[in-house]
Amino acid sequence: QVQLVESGGGLVQSGGSLRLSCATSGSIFSRYSTNWYRQAPGKQREFVAAKTISGTTTYADSVKGRFTISNNNAKNTAYLQMSSLKPDDTAVYYCNAGGPAGIWGQGTQVTVSS
Q1: CA 21 – CA 5 distance, rounded (Å)
Q2: Measured between alpha carbons, how far is 94 from 101 in angstroms, rounded to an integer?
Q3: Cα separation of 66 and 40, whole Å?
Q4: How far, in Å, CA of 93 to CA of 89, rounded?
Q5: Nearest 5 degrees, angle CA 107-CA 41-CA 7?
Q6: How confident is the model over 37-80, as pLDDT tens digits?
Q7: Under 8 Å CB-to-CB from 62, ≥6 apart: which residues?
Q8: How far apart are CA 98 and CA 7, in angstroms?
Q9: 7: closest CA among 22, 29, 26?
Q10: Would strands 10-13 and 108-113 be described as parallel, antiparallel, or unpaired?
């Protein structure tokens, strides 16, 4: 049973930074794409960032230049580094392996105050 477990969420002021982590028990992120999604209150889940097996990264326009997706294969962990945070970034953030039909984490809450 493969699981993804997010951590690192919390409350931060506008302009601040957070790093989200997504831990797994195997080499999932070396065999499948790595993705981050988020869901704000009252809104549908949206794509945030992705990294292919070959290392190519893609970001939603709303987070380009502020967020960075990465992996540490030795630690079996994926990361989402977030900087210059805005209140509109407030959401539950989910890590994912393999795309929408793949493996999902349980989510971690990020709240950005004005």
Answers
A1: 8
A2: 14
A3: 18
A4: 10
A5: 20
A6: 999 999 999 999 999 999 999 999 999 999 999 999 888 999 99
A7: 88
A8: 20
A9: 22
A10: parallel
